[in-house]
Amino acid sequence: xxxxxxxxxxxxxxxxxxxxxxxxxxLIGGVAQIVNAAANPSLAxxxxxxxxxxxxxLCLVGLYMLQPNEAAILTLFGAYAxxxxxxxxxxxxxxxxxxxxxxxxxxxxxxxxxVNDKRGNPVEIGAVVVWRVHDSAQAVFDVDNCETFVGxxxxxxxxxxxxLYAYDDGDDLREGxxxxxxxxxxxAAAMRAELQARxxxxxxxxxxxxxxxxxxxxxxxQVMLRxxxxxxxxxxxxxxxxxxxxxxxxxxxxxxxxxxxxxxxxRKAAMVSNLLVVLCSDRETQxxxxxxxxxx
Length: 296
Fold this sequence. Notes:
The chain is of the alpha+beta class.
């Protein structure tokens, strides 16, 4: 049967500076009573002096100091008695044990992991997570070690996240589908949501999470680089051809409208061929002077 999670509650505590003064007064008064009882034997004075000293010591034992963004978890004989977040010198029941926990934001650098993306390609991925303890009771009582829990869950979340997305665009992906490389904002938002769900049992809040490293694994990096280069060349050629066709069309239209030269279909075909070669070639073209005509 699952136990219900703990919830943070405010602990009963007092101003430590005031209790320090009270403790000093009790100790001084108790010592004075004991000295007086020694000089003038009196059982009542001795008992009162010892009682004051004991109360003074208990008051000192109940003192504890809290820094800003720090909490003290108070337990009384094993039972949770609340959390104190008030910074400064504080005092609580001396029989309550006090365990301090930091509430400051912390960075977790998830080491680079080798995982498979949605297509099954091995990729290397790393992330950084900014987190802090939101519920001190859950962080102390619901998990064995909060920092270890956060580290393991963050690694599991990054591994799972990488399997949900492809590294880059491809023919097998739907149009507009998010990828690890192109959709970093969407991926980061999904990672924060998954981390928050995983950290919730420990009372931990995710402040930010981003990918810090993303690359193909070394064994396929060269192959994927050639694939990307081929795709880039094809895309560039498509744009070059579209632009060249548009320029040839404009040239023919301008010659025809201005009546500069009358071209039959054969001459138009030759002109189009020459212009496309000049515009689409990736090398410098060399002019050739034709002393004859197209018909001899």
